[in-house]
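hey so i finally got around to running the thing on that chain from the lab meeting. sorry it took forever, my laptop kept dying and i had to restart like 3 times. anyway pasting the input first so we r on the same page abt which one it is
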Amino acid sequence: MRATLFLFSFIIFACSPEHKEVQSPKAPNILFIAVDDLRPQLGSYGVETVQSPNIDKLAIQSSLFLNAYCNVPVCGASRASLLSGRRPGYYRYLHYFTRLEQETPDVSPMNLYFMNNGYNTLSLGKIYHHQDDFDQGWHFVDDFVTPRGWRDYVLRENITMEKTEGNKGPTYERADVPDSVYRDGIIACNAIRALDSLGTSEKPFFLAVGFLKPHLPFNAPKKYWDMYDPDQFEVPEAGFRPSNAPEESFHNSGELRHYSGVPSKGVVSDSLARTLIHGYHACVSYTDAQIGMVLDALREKGLEESSIVVLWGDHGWNLREHGMWCKHCLYETSLHVPLIIKAPAIKPGKIKGIAEYVDLYPTLCEITGLNKPEHLDGNSLLPMMTDPENPGDGVAISKWYDG
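ok and heres what got predicted. didnt touch it at all, straight out
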């Protein structure tokens, strides 16, 4: 009821002709953008094959961390680690279904900490893996799912396939539909509407917006597929493994095997591999467009100069490098992540020093002037942001299972 009433009050403020704008809050707002399965497959990271103009524009205006790493290469655990500021351990933050509230109930996660320090906190889309995880730290949680299911197929034949083939749908979809038909387009529209109301509050906001693509299945409007010629993509050699690498460092790409048309084991064909790489790029461009809409709204509503913008991907992703797909391993392709932070009064720059996701919590505390909770494992990245030549501590610790 609390969340519903809070959102309702936003709508009243947004629609009321009597409402007058108030002065910008003294503390900076935070627009916290999470992207599922996004590795640094972006123009701003030197990847020429991808079209990501909106993220690239943000990167030019921001501190761009060239060597940032997640602490766990799977969504639920990575998000729990980042939001808590705690590294994974022997008995915590191990799986995609990790619940921060159950595994570290004594920790005040980022959203709750900012709420308790005067921020309006909203969660739209995927922030925690389970949207009800530590939900007392949000004034409002939009945990909607489409009637079509979490895989969000639009085409009838694909919806039917998912229902009739043991919950297996195709690995991709390229429907000729507007952006707002798929879930990420809806999330962007909801974020823009939230900014209408949040921007008029006397309190600063912590608006977390979680986009799902480029997570499998690679579903994106046709126009984003049409941006690319599939022949432009280099397909990594099938089955290639680094010499002397331990067998335990590899996996069977089980997440991909859950989809129709993918063999249960063995090499994925070059033809399908090229289509999947194409689909990944299409989804990156689709999500980039949604992020661009939200950033444009932030600027148009006069909130850009008073807001911190953080963009991060929860972990990397293998596109047949090392003979693997998806994440779930400790290779560079699974651990290397995009991290972009735009903060008022901090000059943009490319930062080569190593950053890890547990550093983000203390960084936002320092930028906003809040005391840091004692439980944090990471270090503030602000010294590196103010001096891009500062190497930092040179440490990133990542973990995946124990055997």
